[in-house]
Design a protein that fits this description.
- The complex is a heterodimer of chains A (158) and B (502).
- By secondary structure, chain A is mainly α.
- Chain A folds into two domains: 65 residues; 80 residues, no CATH class.
- Chain B has 502 residues and is mostly helical.
- Chain B is built from 21 helices and two strands.
- Chain B has a two-stranded antiparallel sheet.
- In chain B, helix 6 packs antiparallel against helix 16 and helix 9 crosses helix 19.
- Classes of the chains: A mainly alpha (158), B mainly alpha (502).
């Protein structure tokens, strides 16, 4: 599924038509503001329509054209999909846990996990890199540049 | 003649050990801030403003100015080495520079970037020194119709940025424009395309979008391929060769002039200049097919224009007290802190101060070259770091940079979302650059269009009756026509080649 450029373009076209339709629907509900020569929904409606029409054109062009059939999209194999999902899951967990555990803890866990998962490094090596990054963030971002980062349970360091 | 003698007096003050020290601090701070993605010069200047209150006006403003143009030097480092453009103006640098890194030429790319930044930056300061009053008056002629026409000219670049996939490039640009519409309408404050979510009221910042499209999507691509090293060879080149310098000097010179002139226009996004210069070099190039695969002259042009734009931005600030961007607005705050109001009166009452600052910019540019060039080899060796380690670092610094904008977790989710979007765009052959350009231009385009219609009471003739606006619209039309013609010519050549090979 979606293995060729043709099928990919058709799917992208359908997606953009739907996206354009959703934006168009949302645009019609935009309230009128005070003043101004044009209604605030003018540009969103225009752009949504263009996106919808453009998506339809992409779909039709791909459907009629046979040349996209020969070009394959380089999707990952099963192992690649697993690794891709691993990377994305790690990032999602990292961002998801930030409000609770703070940047320093989450960074330590994420870096250590990422290096272990993708590099198969020993735990002490991955932990060493993770600790180094955490120290760097603390000293450079928080102390030197005075950036305020949520720290969760380590808020005493702030 | 007067400018020369004033400049010499300025140099005498600028090279005092005290002022040199703060120029150096500003250069180092600016470079560091530029290297760290997401943290722009605006935040750095604002953070050091309290320290500046302890200093006299001259060293304080010298330091803050050095942070501003120092950040331009630093921004190229992450763009070239790890494909994280910290600002929209660094996107073309990332597009070409990262390809060079993967070829083991990250060091030369960084070196050329530093040299071009120095040359074009110095050209910009020369322009500031001798042409400021005249050019500042011209810059004041820019009103909403001119800004709208400028954004049209910027959008016309979508054609050349789309490469072979013009239709997909236009769709990507449309998607970028729509994304930028999310949030509150800039003129009326009405909520648009928020779908009832409070978080979307603040809109989607373009820095998380850029970081997602470039950095996170790159991590995902390398993750699925189980990449061990970004650069597969063993030896990375450290410094540019004379051949590299010879091939890029013309691009550097052009970018210095164009960058400086566009930097004069208050509110003109540096990204517009970067993309315009990138497109200009592609059109001038005898081998445009190299663009997108690691064109050194493109790196020189874009980075040179960034620094020249920074210098140009000081012209309206010093001449009229009008900041041309957020960083200079904070710098203006620095002036006001000392009871100084930049403008014609300051030029008359405190010329020594202004000329000292201008002279320090020459010195600062030289300092940045001396600071950055030796470090090029060190930075370039980042390409030899195993991807499992480098990828995790890239992810962390990207997300910290995104968080630093508004201290919002929502921005982090946007980084991840656009990371997936960027991944899919790359797989399905949608060019990313048009989307970035459109996202940057959308707000200025809509606002200036609405303001123009208010000025003209609804008549669109205003865009063609004002000469500068009309000139930009004509240029935009020519850009579109020539872009389409060049594409057709390239396609015809491609067909010829395929037929002769068959």
């Amino acid at each position: 599924m979606l293995s060729t450029k043709r099928s990919g373009d058709m799917a992208a076209g359908v997606f953009l038509v739907l996206l354009g339709a959703v934006f168009l629907w949302a645009s019609t509900g935009i309230a009128e503001g005070a003043g101004g020569q044009l209604h605030p929904r003018t540009f969103p409606i225009l752009l949504s329509l263009l996106l919808l029409i453009g998506g339809a054109a992409l779909f039709l062009q791909a459907w009629r054209s046979g040349e996209g059939e020969a070009k394959r999209i380089e999707w990952p194999d099963r192992r690649g999909r697993r690794l891709w999902l691993g990377a994305l899951s790690g990032l999602v967990l990292y961002v998801g846990l930030l409000p609770y555990l703070g940047f320093l803890l989450c960074t330590f866990l994420f870096v250590m996990g990422f290096i272990r998962y993708f590099g198969r490094y020993p735990l002490w090596v991955a932990g060493g890199y993770a600790l180094g990054v955490v120290v760097f963030i603390y000293l450079v971002f928080m102390r030197l540049l005075q950036l305020t980062l949520p720290l969760g349970p380590l808020s005493f360091l702030g | 003649m007067e400018a020369w003698s004033s400049l010499l007096d300025g140099f005498a003050a600028a090279v005092s050990p005290y002022n040199l020290l703060f120029a150096l601090i500003g250069c180092i701070a600016g470079t560091l801030v530029g290297v760290l993605p997401g943290l722009g010069p605006t935040a750095a200047i604002a953070m050091l403003l309290p320290l500046a209150t302890l200093l006299d006006p001259a060293p304080a403003i010298i330091m803050m100015a050095a942070i501003y143009y120092g950040a331009m030097y630093g921004g190229s480092t992450t763009s070239i080495l790890v494909n994280i453009p910290g600002e929209a103006s660094s996107v073309p640098t990332a597009m070409e520079g990262y390809q060079l890194t993967m070829q083991g030429r990250g060091g030369p790319a960084l070196g050329i970037s530093a040299i071009a930044s120095f040359v074009a930056g110095t050209m910009g300061v020369i322009g500031l020194t001798f042409f400021a009053p005249v050019l500042a008056r011209a810059a004041l002629a820019f009103g909403p119709p001119e800004y709208f026409a400028l954004t049209l000219l910027g959008l016309s670049l979508v054609i050349s940025l789309s490469g072979r996939e013009l239709g997909k490039g236009l769709l990507a640009a449309l998607f970028g424009l729509l994304t930028a519409m999310i949030g509150l309408d800039p003129l009326t404050g009405v909520a648009r395309l928020t779908f009832g979510y409070r978080e979307l009221m603040g809109g989607v910042e373009f820095v998380p979008i850029i970081m997602g499209l470039f950095a996170i999507s790159e991590i995902l691509i390398n993750a699925e391929k189980e990449t061990k090293y970004i650069f597969k060879g063993k030896k990375v080149e450290w410094l540019p060769t004379w051949q590299d310098i010879k091939e890029t000097w013309a691009a550097t010179g052009r970018s210095g002039v164009v960058g400086f002139l566009f930097g004069l226009i208050p509110g003109c996004s540096p990204a517009v200049t970067s993309f315009m210069v990138y497109d200009m070099e592609r059109r001038f190039s005898k081998h445009p097919e190299r663009f997108g695969k690691g064109a050194m002259d493109a790196v020189a042009a874009v980075e040179g224009s960034n620094n020249a734009t920074a210098s140009g931005g000081f012209v309206p600030l010093f001449a009229f007290g009008i900041p041309s961007g957020p960083a200079l607005a904070v710098l203006l705050g620095g002036f006001i802190m000392y009871g100084l109001q930049p403008g014609p009166r300051l030029m008359q009452e405190q010329p020594q101060l202004l000329w000292t600052i201008i002279a320090s910019m020459y010195v600062g540019n030289a300092m940045l070259l001396v600071l950055n060039l030796p470090l090029v080899g060190v930075w370039a060796r980042m390409a030899l770091i195993p991807f499992p380690v480098l990828g995790s670092f890239i992810a962390v610094f990207t997300l910290i940079g995104a968080y630093s904008l508004r201290h919002s977790f929502f921005d982090l989710w946007m980084v991840l979302l656009f990371g997936v979007v960027g991944y899919l765009m790359r797989k399905l052959g949608f060019p990313v650059a048009p989307m970035v350009l459109a996202t940057v231009l959308a707000s200025l385009m809509e606002t200036s269009f609405m303001q123009s219609l208010t000025m003209s009471r609804g008549s669109v003739a205003i865009f063609v009756t004002r000469p500068i606006s009309a000139a930009f619209i004509i240029l935009a039309a020519l850009s579109v026509v020539s872009g389409i013609w060049l594409r057709k010519r390239a396609k015809a050549r491609q067909v010829e080649l395929e037929e002769s090979d068959a």
